[in-house]
Write a structure and sequence with these properties.
The chain is 15% helix and 40% strand. The chain is built from two helices and nine strands; from the N terminus they run E-H-E-E-E-E-H-E-E-E-E. Strands 3-2-5-4 form a four-stranded mixed sheet.
Length: 126
């Protein structure tokens, strides 16, 4: 009589390094440059979505000394980016770039989920 032995298989939870938001190299470099000028140097950058503006939501960026309890932390070439749980759903697929033109310079958020924006381009609706 033949005996077969089966080994139970366990599946490890799927881990993904997928980031809901991405930063261009120029945006990372500019944030690091600005951070280096701060005293004390912040631990990272908070990116979020806040209610307000003529279309309903607007983006926010600020320096932080650490992540909050409900934050997700992402690393972009050594730049720590903190995102709160509520903002995560609005930032999926967003690309942040830093652009310099003759008219000015600044961070540009490219959000594929936006249904409409205001005339000035600083707020959006999903």
């Amino acid at each position: 009589m033949a005996t077969t032995t089966t080994t139970p298989t366990t599946t490890a939870p799927a881990t993904t390094d997928a980031k809901p938001v991405t930063f261009s190299s120029s945006a990372i470099a500019k944030v690091k440059e600005i951070m280096a000028q701060q005293t004390p140097v912040p631990a990272g950058l908070r990116v979020g979505v806040v209610g307000g503006g003529c279309s309903g939501f607007s983006y926010s960026m600020s320096f932080e000394n650490g992540a909050g309890m409900m934050d997700k932390t992402f690393d972009f070439e050594g730049l720590k980016v903190f995102v709160d749980g509520t903002s995560l759903m609005y930032l999926k697929g967003v690309n942040v770039d830093y652009i310099e033109t003759l008219e000015g310079a600044g961070f540009k958020f490219d959000n594929p989920n936006v249904k409409s924006t205001c005339g000035c381009g600083s707020s959006f609706n999903v």
